[in-house]
Amino acid sequence: MTSLSKMPGMSAQPNWTTALAAHHFSLVQEFIRSNPQSQEAFQQAQLILPGGNTRSVLNATPFPLSIESAQDAFVTSVDGKRYLDFVSDFSAGLFGHSHPEISHAVETAVNYGFSLGAVTRKEAKLASTIQERFVSIEQIRFCNSGTEANIYAIATSMAFTKRSKILVFSHGYHGGVLSFGAGNQALNIPHDFAIGVFDNIEKTRSLISRDLAAILVEPMQSAGGMRVASREFLSFLRTAADETGAILIFDEVVTSRLHYNGLQGYHGIKPDMTTLGKYLGGGLPFGAFGGREDIMSQFNPTSSISSESKLLQHSGTFNNNVFTMSAALAASKIVTPEEIQRINNLGDRLRERGNQISHEAGFGSELMIIGFGSCVGLYFANDPDGILRDCFYFSLLRAGIMIGRRGFLMLNFAHTDVLIERTLVALQDCIGVIQGL
């Protein structure tokens, strides 16, 4: 075969495209043969669960792997296959699986009662650990997911400003009811949304107005493809919020793992409110929203800012549940600037070496490895049907490495230099096979 580096683009070659489709078919058939128990579990689940799951992001053809157990950096399927896990529960699994200190905290909590229906000292202690990390959070309230956190942050901003329009961005994802990517968005909350172009100042400028209640943005779009916002763009939004009186909300549900002080700390840009979730609960359901004291005082019945008619009510049976509070406190001691930097360095190496491997193989026009720190994205050019991306997914799976089906790797604290090197070897092998089609 002609060297790919001399070709104008593999996807432009009809013979290569046909060979890739055949390779993809072969990989899928091998996956089906190798995972009969996962297939059976999926078929049984479909009888009672629409789509066979209760989390649409896990939809997969021909069927998803069914995971039986997990430990450290690995998961084991019902078919007994062990995989190096780079899904990391879509960034929530920052600590690896079954971290002993978090496990101990949860086990201890069982002995002191749960579903208490009362205030505990743990929630204030947890709030203090979070406030220490994020300069924008003067006061904070807990909920049960990042989705809830963003819903509450929007509602809080609308109540504070007495306005209704919310500026969001294309391909943004702030939870299952706040999704602005492709596909059916019928479940979105029916707010008055203006949708700007992410990381594009000029195409967003016309949407800045004095009727904005809030500007909601991810400093890096995760579900949107690991696209990082520039400091200039985030600064522009900060200025726009100052000039219009809108509340600037940073959705750091994912990005707070990329710097000890979040990407707001990394960029030195202070939002008015911040939303959090995922890993901060130590692997249990968790969400939080917080910000300026004058904004958050709307929830305080003793505040001079609030009155009975203006007081905001925020309830939730499990907002301060003992298990999440215990796990989150244990997790907060594990998250350190040094450990975050360590896995960020691993992610940087994965990107740098992976792109080098791709370039040296003449694959650079087809695959770019992007992202920030420990969040790694695989971007496939000229792949509208996702066949090339799927070939990488199934090939890595065959090598015992599980990445996100949509093309991402989320590093966690259980990952090591040795495991990154193993992944780079598998990536090189994968590229080599496709190169030889």
Automatic annotation (TrEMBL):
<dbReference type="InterPro" id="IPR005814">
    <property type="entry name" value="Aminotrans_3"/>
</dbReference>
<dbReference type="Pfam" id="PF00202">
    <property type="entry name" value="Aminotran_3"/>
</dbReference>
<protein>
    <recommendedName>
        <fullName>Glutamate-1-semialdehyde 2,1-aminomutase</fullName>
    </recommendedName>
</protein>
<comment type="similarity">
    <text>Belongs to the class-III pyridoxal-phosphate-dependent aminotransferase family.</text>
</comment>
<keyword id="KW-0663">Pyridoxal phosphate</keyword>
<dbReference type="InterPro" id="IPR015421">
    <property type="entry name" value="PyrdxlP-dep_Trfase_major"/>
</dbReference>
<dbReference type="InterPro" id="IPR015422">
    <property type="entry name" value="PyrdxlP-dep_Trfase_small"/>
</dbReference>
<dbReference type="GO" id="GO:0030170">
    <property type="term" value="F:pyridoxal phosphate binding"/>
</dbReference>
<dbReference type="InterPro" id="IPR015424">
    <property type="entry name" value="PyrdxlP-dep_Trfase"/>
</dbReference>
<dbReference type="GO" id="GO:0008483">
    <property type="term" value="F:transaminase activity"/>
</dbReference>
